[in-house]
């Protein structure tokens, strides 16, 4: 019963793809998972999971006070539920009360083993609200200097909010000029939980509207995300043992 923000210091690093597929991978390991698309201006989990929202209630409706927790929570698979964000421009024109996000995640934690929040990238108000509503943070970055600079700032924000940083995910890796994993860990002073290869099957799964780990389970990127899921569970069990001790 833990809520983890999947966050990044800049857009375009593949954070939402990691969040969606990590949720699927964790559910396939037998854990009940809730995903929350809290990227207010750039909600994409519906597209990534192949879910047609139609007129369904979304997180934007909940934050504006026009929907309940039960109304916005959608069953995607037996072990995976999702609170989708709206892709409609009109949803952004509503008065959104971001402090309600913490209330929602508390409700979700009572009903799931894990809650994952796909945050907005960067440092706008909605990104801060998502981090505040979580218990822990995973930082997603690409192995380049601009992405690392943003990750350092996210780390500072998370630490300031008193959130436990589970570690870092290096995405779109495998290129000649990548910053080595050891250097990334030294710069960020955080463990690299997984290195996800830049993989053409990611783009294929996006076009098909099917989660990568389901459509291409044996691809390098899928294997990396499944390893990340196992690492997250290992981290949580270790944290639980420390707390009980």
Notable traits:
single chain; 245 residues; alpha/beta; Rossmann fold; eight-stranded mixed β-sheet; 11 helices; 44% helix; 20% strand; globular
Question: Secondary structure elements and their pairing?
Answer:
Elements: E1 2-7, H1 15-28, E2 33-38, H2 45-48, H3 59-63, H4 69-72, E3 73-77, E4 80-83, H5 100-109, E5 114-119, H6 125-132, E6 136-141, H7 145-160, E7 164-173, H8 181-188, E8 192-197, H9 200-208, H10 212-215, H11 220-244
Give a structural overview.
- The chain has one domain (about 1-245): 3-Layer(aba) Sandwich (Rossmann fold).
- The protein contains 11 helices and 8 strands.
- The chain has helices at about 15-30, 45-50, 60-65, 70, 100-110, 125-130, 145-160, 180-190, 200-210, 210-215, 220-245, and strands spanning about 1-5, 35-40, 75, 80-85, 115-120, 135-140, 165-175, 190-195.
- The chain has an 8-stranded mixed sheet with strand order 3-4-2-5-1-6-7-8, with helices on both faces.
- A hairpin with a 2-residue loop joins β3 and β4.
- α1 (about 15-30) crosses α11 (about 220-245).
- The longest helix has 25 residues, at about 220-245.
- The two termini are about 20 Å apart.
- The model has no long low-confidence stretch (mean pLDDT about 90).
The main β sheet shows up as: 8 strands, mixed
CATH homologous superfamily (4th level) name: P-loop containing nucleotide triphosphate hydrolases
Helical percent range?
Answer: 40-55%
Shape, principal axes of CA atoms: globular
Radius of gyration: 17 Å
Sheet-strand content, in percent, reads 15-25%
What's the structural domain tally? 1
Sequence stretches where pLDDT stays below 50 over 5 or more residues = none
Can you list the strand order of the major beta sheet?
Answer: 3-4-2-5-1-6-7-8
CATH architecture: 3-Layer(aba) Sandwich
CATH class, named Alpha Beta
Any idea of the CATH topology?
Answer: Rossmann fold
How many helix segments? 11
The overall pLDDT, averaged over residues, is 92
Structural class: alpha/beta
Number of strands: 8
